[in-house]
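Entry for GN1 complex. Fields follow.
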Amino acid sequence: MNNMDNIISQFIGNAKAEDISPIGNGHINSTFLVKTPHSKYVLQKINTSVFPDVDALMSNIDKVTHHIQKKVKECGKNPSRATLNFLTAPNGKKYICYEGNYYRMYDFIDGTFTIEKMDNPVNFYYSGKAFGEFANFFTDFDASLLVETIKDFHNTPKRFKDFEQAIDENRKGRVAYVCDEIEFVKSRRDFMPLFTDKLAGNALPLRVTHNDTKLNNILFDEKTNMPVTVIDLDTVMPGSYLYDFGDAIRFGATHAAEDEKDLSLVDFDLDLYRSFAKGYIEESGNSLTDEEINMLPYASIMLTLECGMRFLTDHLNGDTYFRISRQGHNLDRARTQFKLVSEMENNVENMKEIIDELVGR
Ligand code: ADP
Ligand code: GN1
Ligand code: MG
């Protein structure tokens, strides 16, 4: 038996894996599709540099998946594909440690696809509904039950401090040729505490949110094109609706890929923006406070700026956080984000108009 077989057998006993192949484009974990003669599973090697407390991580996920199942049953829907179903290992836990690495296995949800680049307002409208429904699931969930799996995950001013530290350390000598990008970020430092200050002063409520609402974290049904479930539950923790709304817009309201090298292709599409916002507000609108609504037009700017700053920080640090597949990959990603930020900034008034129209004010 090779290592992979050893790992898999802990979860599925003697069932023989016929094929194990990498899937998806996630930047953090290593994800594989495992096929046995009768079933398909996902095997994931957890990135413990990003998620050091695996026990707390999996305990969060257990609570989150059980809660989703409960809510789905309450609506009278079929819970079988409504969330991820993790397998229990002989140690009684939903993960194992093998030769110092941590693994988990869960059912592969067949007949689904993920979207890597948005091209269709209808799909984006349903993406908005999927994340809006996700927000709604957790309105009656006690946030104190969840551990913060990554502290200060969307604390933009804290991310700025990390960025400044990366510049000071200049570990790879890359600072000299990214001066324009550094200046772009620095000139926006006063904007960065907008949400964190309001959260600290209770002007914005703390919510249980997904925090990583990239489109490829939704599975869509191959036959109906409807969302099946939201995946990648590692960062579900206390946060703000603005994070989930903003991050989804960042990834989806453009025709360019996150790592597009030709910046002339990086646009901000207001029709896509409207589609997502419509779906999101239809599902979560009743629980949005006035101040959350007021802040929605700034959410995508904040999350796109933060994400670009994280990519640039990682580039300066020598690409230790986000998986890369080419030289300068994180710098390319940072540049697309900054181009998008500029486009979004030029459209704040348009975003305000759209949000006002959608909430009927
Ligand atoms: P990462 O944390 O690295 O982003 P994800 O949990 O998002 O990892 O998984 C990466 C990709 O694997 C997803 O974008 C999706 O394409 C695929 N995937 C993950 N879980 C499932 C599942 N249960 N069924 C089908 N595909 C899945
Ligand atoms: C990472 O795990 P994945 O690929 O869905 C990252 C997000 C970033 C995103 C940028 C835990 O998401 O915060 O927005 O890359 N996840 C983590 O593509 O850091
Ligand atoms: Mg993912």
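NOTE: The mean pLDDT is 96.
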